[in-house]
């Protein structure tokens, strides 16, 4: 690969440096949420076959109780990635996007659907439920099917009837995020943020938020797992309900109180198509493995690996 350029997005750099009226309601709503030490790193690579690849790797805020912080980071990440992706396509033509990392959200969550579907309504859930992490903590794995269904299927359930959601704070946050723009500046090779001064109305409701990628982002593990779900090598085949499944892996992260998928490779592929992914350990492999890291796995997260083939080569082979 040839490195064409690289840059980074420090979510907290906007805490003190932003373009907005100091008295703006939106600025006061969002800025305190950005004072966390999380970043995203971007690089633009040219491969030997002249394909252009935009790579982004990030680690989002962990705290399951602070969905407001995580949503702010997700919005900035998607805004920045879209801006750089748009610039890259205008400059080079076809571009393959890889948006990956530890997102600290699970497939059964509202955040997962927001990334996948391009929009979500955040009215009915407490902020500590948006990532789904609290739903999968301390879940027994005695019943593997039950565990997979709870943590990985698209079965997020509203708890509106049993909780008192502070809708005023959520409405302020959503309004602030709607008016927040992140743009890539090629002359400085950096991102600039602008937070609007006025709260605008939206026909979909004050708790509705969308992002610019729409439904374009695809999880590479979900895509390949769905295509190979009936093959013997596929670890999730026996757990999948095709009508409900996200087709994500059983888990990518294991601690003493949680086994869940929190790591992803989201893609938009112009020049490649995925053909296989590294199958992660399944439940039967965890019999004698309580947590990671251990002597077999040096990290508390499993590595995600995908093999890609150029579209023209795939067509030739077919």
Distance between the termini: 27 Å
Uncertain spans, ≥5 residues at pLDDT below 50? 17-26, 158-165
What is the CA-atom radius of gyration, in angstroms?
Answer: 20 Å
Q: Which structural class do you get from the secondary structure elements?
A: alpha+beta
Count the E strands: 14
Biggest sheet details: 6 strands, mixed
Please explain how this structure is put together.
The protein has 8 helices and 14 strands. The protein is of the alpha+beta class and 318 residues long. Strands 1-2-3-4-12-9 form a 6-stranded mixed sheet. Strand 10 (253-254) and strand 11 (259-260) form a beta hairpin. It starts with a strand and ends with a helix.
Itemize the secondary structure elements and their pairings:
Blueprint (H helix, E strand, L loop, with lengths): L1 E9 L14 H6 L8 E8 L5 E8 L7 H26 L3 E7 L7 H8 L1 E3 L11 H4 L7 H9 L14 H12 L1 E6 L4 E6 L12 E3 L7 E2 H8 L25 E2 L4 E2 L2 E6 L3 E6 L28 E5 H7 L1
Parallel strand pairs: 3-4
Antiparallel strand pairs: 1-2, 2-3, 4-12, 5-8, 6-7, 9-12, 10-11, 13-14
Question: Which features does this protein show?
Answer:
318 residues; 14 strands; globular; single chain; alpha+beta; two-stranded antiparallel sheet
Could you provide a short overview of the structure?
With 318 residues, this protein is of the alpha+beta class.
């Amino acid at each position: 690969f040839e490195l064409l350029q690289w840059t980074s997005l420090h979510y907290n750099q906007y805490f003190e440096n932003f373009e907005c009226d100091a008295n703006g309601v939106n600025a006061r709503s969002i800025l305190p949420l950005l004072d966390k030490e999380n970043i995203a790193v971007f690089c633009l690579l040219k491969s030997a076959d002249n394909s252009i690849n935009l790579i982004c790797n990030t680690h989002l805020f962990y705290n399951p109780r602070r969905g407001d912080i995580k949503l702010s980071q997700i919005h900035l990440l998607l805004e920045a990635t879209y801006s750089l992706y748009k610039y890259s396509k205008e400059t080079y033509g076809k571009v393959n996007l890889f948006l990956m990392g530890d997102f600290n959200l699970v497939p059964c969550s509202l955040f997962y659907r927001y990334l996948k579907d391009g929009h979500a309504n955040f009215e009915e859930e407490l902020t500590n439920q948006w990532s789904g992490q609290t739903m999968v903590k301390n879940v027994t794995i005695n019943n593997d099917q039950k565990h997979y269904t709870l943590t990985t299927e698209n079965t997020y359930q509203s708890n509106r009837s049993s909780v008192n959601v502070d809708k005023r704070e959520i409405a302020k946050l959503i309004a602030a995020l709607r008016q927040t723009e992140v743009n890539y500046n090629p002359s400085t090779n950096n991102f600039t943020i602008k937070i609007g001064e006025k709260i605008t109305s939206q026909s979909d409701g004050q708790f509705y938020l969308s992002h610019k990628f729409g439904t374009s982002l695809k999880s590479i593990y979900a895509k390949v797992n769905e295509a190979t779900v009936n093959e013997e090598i596929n670890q999730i085949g026996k757990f999948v309900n095709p009508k409900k499944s996200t087709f994500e892996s059983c888990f990518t992260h294991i601690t003493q109180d949680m086994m869940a998928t929190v790591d992803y490779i989201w893609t938009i592929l112009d020049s490649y198509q995925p053909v296989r992914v590294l199958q992660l350990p399944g439940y039967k492999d965890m019999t004698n493995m309580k947590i990671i890291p251990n002597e077999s796995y040096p990290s508390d997260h499993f590595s995600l690996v995908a093999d890609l083939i150029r579209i023209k080569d795939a067509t030739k082979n077919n």
